[in-house]
Amino acid sequence: MFQNNLKIVWRTLRKNSTYSLINVVGLAIGMAAVLLIYRIVDFELGFNKNFENYDRIVRVVRHDRNAEGENWTTCMPLPAANAVEQAVPQFEEFSRSRDAWPTLTVPDPNGGAPLKKFNQPDDMVSFFVEPAYLKIFKLKLLEGDPNTALRDNGSVILTKKWAEKCFGDAHAAMSQTVIMDNLVTLTVRGVMAEMPANCDFPIGCLISYATLEANSRNYFYGEDNWGACSSNNQAFALLKSADQLTAANEVVRTVGEKEYKMEGGLENEQKVHELQPLSDLHYNAELYNPTGRIVTKNRLRILSFIGLLVLAMACFNFINLSTAQATQRAKEVGVRKTLGVSKGQLIGQFMGETATVTVISVLLGLTLAVLCLPLLKLISDVPADAPFVMLLQTWGFIAAMAVAVTLLAGFYPSIVLAGFDPIEALKTNTMSRLTAGSFLMKKQGLVREGLVVLQFAIASAFIVGTIVTLSQLEYIRQKDLGFDKNLVYSFNFNSDSASMAKMPVLRQQLLQLPAVESVSLCSDQPSSGNTWANNFAFPASGEDAPFNVSLKYADASYQKTYGLRLVAGKWLEPSDTLKEVVVNQTLLRKLGISNPDEVVGQELRIGSRRKVRISGVVEDFHSHSIHQPLEPMLIGSRKIYYNWAGIKIKPDNLAATTAAIQKAYDEVYPEQVFSGSFFDETIAQFYEDEKRFSNTCKGFGLLAVFIACLGLFGLSIHAASRRTKEIGVRKVLGASISSITGLLARDFLKLVLISLVVGFPIAWYFMDKWLADFTFHVDMNWAVFAIAGFAAMAVAFLTISFQSVKAALANPVKSLRSE
Amino acid sequence: MTNDQCPIKTMIKTVNLSKVYRTDEVETTALNNVDIDIKQGEFVSVMGPSGCGKSTLLNVLGMIDSPSSGDYFFNEQEVGKLAERKRSDVRKHNLGFVFQSFNLIDELTVYENVELPMLYTKVPANERKKRVEELLEGMNIMHRKNHFPQQLSGGQQQRVAVARAVVNKPKLILADEPTGNLDSSNGDEVMKILADLNATGTTILMVTHSQYCAEFGNRIIRMLDGQVVAENVVKRYL
Known about the structure:
With 819 residues, chain A is an alpha+beta fold. Helix content of chain A is 50%, strand content 17%. In chain B, strands 7-8-9-4-10-11 form a 6-stranded mixed β-sheet, with helices on both faces. Chain B is globular and about 50 Å long.
């Protein structure tokens, strides 16, 4: 029986090759899309599960609430970390942790230039940690003793790859010396394996916490008060058992109740510590993650939903084409029924046929998905070389998907086909009778029209999404950020006193390069991910302002290098210490001052003591991504905090200029590692997420439109063949080709038009929410919908017109005879 | 042995069998209180003008349609009110159909079409092969066994359809104008096959417009406006 059915399937597929192709290609594309999205979702949901103690690991975080709003932070003031460690009996292990992005050099034992020097790759993070860290994360060492490897000042554990890079192999690295940031001498006390790709701890090396404590000045560490805090200072703990999270949290919340109050801070401010489970770390956008690779579960849900939509659209094609062709199989159903086949058996047979088509599509879809794996980097972090096809769970998913598709695509057509009345089905001229307008046929027609509307509604929503995201990206690219991001080459450098002493030399050498226009040293470039906030008062003798101000330290060349625009007063004079500041327009606006000239020459107070003079007012510029609002800001000179250099260069021969900059750097700092980048590229990275979302809309939108058009193409073939006689009669009666083309196209275009009415409000709702996430964004005006509507109609018309024109051109004599 | 001593069993018996089709506006009585009685081994022809209810009667007796009222006994079992599933079961094991337009499945070869009913009655593969080949040989179309229906002449297609109808050795063959689409020579051939089958004990009920074909049977039921208006026994003069 199975064999017999299989033969029927194969022969039916061959007989209706166009429809079969549409079904198989559509389903294969849909499945490939779902498989790729599954790849992403599975990768993201697997984050950090490599740790054996996954369920028991927690990070101590803090929830801050004040009059301005609320905020989550990972920062642990030093006394708070000590207090939490002491207070919580449910902790089995506890370790403070501090993120680091070190450079490593292998010194020449003979005292010459370093033998090797490395920058930590961008996708790695190193950590200063306590010995308990190894127990919390159950990290196994390939070399060294886990009990002592992180005990002493100057101890480091390298990953195998780093150990090999520095010393040839893991064993040889043991007890060797490396220099971190050209500042701290470390001895290799252990070697560990590389972390897997889907882990939020892509460890470069682990440095003993004692090293951080011993070098606190170099690493701005050690302010022993409850008010000082950096998101890089974190604390991790291992619960005695996973079910103790609630109990431990209750204790943690009480830590610092009194101390934070005594610290003062903003009005009505509340700071409460909480425990964040490791399982939340990769998905919580409100909390800092050293890799910066946070993917909210909502994003994964949206992505999954997009995949399901695309697959559902392919299933709709299957349903539409199957039911449209159902009349052709009426005779078969009738015959089988007279042979005594029950409705259930027929449903089984047709489901089997769908399953066969599904299996063929699965194989094709899998091939497509594998070919498209390298494209995943356009929308995700999934490495192209991560195992996929060989995983058992992938095949489990494929099997589940095949069953779901078979049911979704096959069930309704099976019911329709198996439901044919054998008497009707076996009458001659059954086809014309069935198509002519029985209730069943009308109902199926409505279902088909509904599904076409749904498909094009989805496709048009994707078109709107693509237009809006592309417009927003273009808006970001073209937006005047308040500074000039082009042709600024920058690098960061060590800010220890020895390095700083040589900086004037480097600066002078750089300024002598003909392509260099200016050089500026600063703590932060105009736009960065960092925030350095402080309380302040204006006038200096007054009360603290009810909001904090953001601080940037920069030299006198900062304005010229980054093209900042002054609206009043003048820029900072050259100075190594903080004597005067430039304020921005937002600060004045928040203080209720409308005339910028008013404040020039007046004093303000930063923190509790330091009074400085306002030398000028700078036009607002975006110090963060345009997701965030403009913030009140002060810029002043303070040499000890400089660790960035920005170099404004001329546009000719950029490669030669950057090479010359590196050469100058290497000459002045032969022991340090150079790492330069263009400022506009750094800014572009802020919008990587948006770029990915836009690519997602573009990619899946294209697929959605293609699948919808495939379906429409199939239905137009069916409609043309069904109306062959009508077209012949009309032509004999004198109808023109254009009127016949219009006749056939009209019905479909009407559906597409309805789909726009359905799809546009949905698209508007979601894209409005997406845009609301940007403080500065494009407006979604009627033009977006006009373009999207025109595009959808045009694509639909082109799809239909091929078949319509063909039908209209057919010789009526032939078509009437063949009827 | 006489009939009194061993009565021939009644295969089909209907009592006040009616079939009414209703739409929103019209009610059409296709069968109106039909009482018929067909014994095992009979070859009964049903005649009458178009629209008199012949085909409806065949469909109801073939259990692909159900009566609106009245009783239908098949082998002394009331089947008119059976659920679809049970009717399918009775049909599968007892009936064979032959249609005017052959109704072969285009996607299956001659061999596969004939084999199909046995797949539903779960006949073992060896037995299926044997029976199909015997029948195709008997119908003289063995050489066409791997052809598809469209590649055959009308006569050949109808022979395949008859082979399919009898392959499960049904007790009753229902034929709806089996020669309607055939020329006289092919029609004759099909009628002879049916007559031969009847001679081997298969009961046949055939709807036809042709008096000539009807006389291959041993009784003719004449219908008009959904009612049986006459019954004649066919007399053969040697």
